[in-house]
Amino acid sequence: MTELSPVTQTQAQKAPKAPTLPDAQTVTSVKHYTDRLFAFRVTRPASLRFRSGEFVMLGLMQTDEKTGKEKPLLRAYSIASPSWDEELEFYSIKVQDGPLTSRLQHIEPGDQIILRPKPVGTLVHDALLPGKRLWFFATGTGIAPFASLLRDPQTYEDYEEIILTHTCREVGELDYGRELIENIRSDEMLAELIGEGFHEKLKYYPTTTREESAKMGRITDLLRAGDVYGDLGIEPIRPETDRAMICGNLAFNLELKAMLEEMGLEEGANSDPKQYVVEKAFLD
Ligand SMILES: Cc1cc2nc3c(=O)[nH]c(=O)nc-3n(C[C@H](O)[C@H](O)[C@H](O)COP(=O)(O)OP(=O)(O)OC[C@H]3O[C@@H](n4cnc5c(N)ncnc54)[C@H](O)[C@@H]3O)c2cc1C
Ligand SMILES: NC(=O)c1ccc[n+]([C@@H]2O[C@H](COP(=O)([O-])OP(=O)(O)OC[C@H]3O[C@@H](n4cnc5c(N)ncnc54)[C@H](OP(=O)(O)O)[C@@H]3O)[C@@H](O)[C@H]2O)c1
């Protein structure tokens, strides 16, 4: 399989250091997309098994103000790489006053991060009943778990059609997703599973809300107005055929969840698979 990572710009120039901290992994590449978004890849713990779509806790060491001792500062991060990848990829926000990302945004190849190897999450194939079409609905960094699932062959083996919608405020915020789709379409093995032209299984629907682009509007409004179905030339969502995964900001998650429920889809879980699943892209 060819390299699927969009993270190629600052490939490791320094040789990766051997991890020394507990649960430490070494950064192998970093790519900045905008002043608020970047992606990075790290070494993968030999023992780490995960299901595409799951998240882990990762972070950096920090000094405890009271005790003066070093301790880890960890946050939840969706694994953006697929389960077969030999490295792990993450797609991150940069919050300028954020305790973690104000520092994490400065990592470079050769640096170490802390990664707790205990993957969990609901955006997994196991939480959905079999269906014909699979929708991935994302806003902002909520695309990260889908970057994993979209590079997993099981996604194309289990479904006849896969639709990724990604809504961001600005055009530059769509770049990671656009690159991801280009890389998937040009990957030999995945391209064969996806097919070409009219028969292509993968449909990509990027939209912006605050900067002019080819398609503007919130995905919720575009679904209600019927634009999504018309633009893609597909039938409306039905509980008999459609399965969905949602990952974005809280208001988006709640609005879309209510819309899907109204269409007759029910929320599933690992222990009780149904028609759709949802996870927050961050805590508001
Ligand atoms: C299940 C889960 C999975 C997550 N996966 C990712 C991921 O793959 N990539 C990622 O960048 N973040 C992800 N997050 C958010 C992440 O855990 C941190 O909040 C983020 O890294 C910022 O950390 P911080 O310490 O700098 O700021 P925090 O104190 O954690 O956050 C400060 C504020 O920044 C905003 N914010 C935080 N994260 C985001 C975001 N991703 N997009 C937009 N605004 C945000 C919120 O308003 C938040 O209140 C996830 C969160 C959850 C709950
Ligand atoms: N993106 C930026 O340029 C920027 C800059 C500085 C600070 N921030 C702050 O960072 C935080 C996260 O910003 P973000 O842009 O990454 O993510 P966000 O605010 O979660 O927005 C991402 C996308 O989701 C859309 N959206 C919001 N609510 C929705 C709903 N109910 N239904 C459907 N779509 C919905 C937004 O559309 P709308 O545009 O219509 O809301 C936007 O296109 C926010 O607190 C923000 O104030 C963002």
List the helices and strands and how they pair.
Elements (H helix, E strand, L loop, with lengths): L9 E2 L12 E9 L4 E7 L11 E9 L6 E9 L8 E7 L7 H4 L7 E9 L12 E7 L4 H6 L3 H6 L2 E8 L6 H11 L2 H7 L7 E7 L10 H6 L2 H6 L9 E7 L1 H13 L13 E5 L4
Parallel strand pairs: 8-9, 8-11, 9-10, 11-12
Antiparallel strand pairs: 1-2, 2-3, 2-7, 3-6, 4-5, 4-7
Bound molecules: flavin-adenine dinucleotide and NADP nicotinamide-adenine-dinucleotide phosphate (NAP).
Attribute tags:
globular, NADP, binds flavin-adenine dinucleotide, 2 domains, FAD, oxidoreductase, ferredoxin--NADP(+) reductase, Elongation Factor Tu (Ef-tu), domain 3, 5-stranded parallel beta sheet, 284 residues, binds NADP nicotinamide-adenine-dinucleotide phosphate, single chain, 7-stranded antiparallel beta sheet, alpha/beta, 8 helices, Rossmann fold, FAD-bd_FR_type
Description of the structure:
The protein is of the alpha/beta class and 284 residues long. It has 2 domains: 10-119, Beta Barrel (Elongation Factor Tu (Ef-tu), domain 3); 125-280, Rossmann fold. It is 21% helix and 30% strand. It contains 8 helices and 12 strands. It has helices at 101-104, 144-149, 153-158, 175-185, 188-194, 219-224, 227-232, 250-262; strands at 10-11, 24-32, 37-43, 55-63, 70-78, 87-93, 112-120, 133-139, 161-168, 202-208, 242-248, 276-280. Strands 1, 2, 3, 4, 5, 6 and 7 form a 7-stranded antiparallel β-sheet that branches. Strands 10-9-8-11-12 form a 5-stranded parallel β-sheet, sandwiched between helices. Strand 4 (55-63) and strand 5 (70-78) form a beta hairpin. The longest helix has 13 residues, at 250-262. The chain is globular. Residues 8-12 have low confidence and may be disordered. The structure holds flavin-adenine dinucleotide and NADP nicotinamide-adenine-dinucleotide phosphate (NAP). Flavin-adenine dinucleotide binds at residues 55, 75-78, 90-93, 95, 98-102, 140-141, 144, 279-284. Residues 55, 75-78, 90-93, 95, 98-102, 140-141, 144, 279-284 line the site of flavin-adenine dinucleotide (FAD). Keywords: FAD, Flavoprotein, NADP, Oxidoreductase. This is ferredoxin--NADP(+) reductase. It catalyses: 2 reduced [2Fe-2S]-[ferredoxin] + NADP(+) + H(+) = 2 oxidized [2Fe-2S]-[ferredoxin] + NADPH. Residues 20-126 form the FAD-binding FR-type domain. GO terms for molecular function: ferredoxin-NADP+ reductase activity.
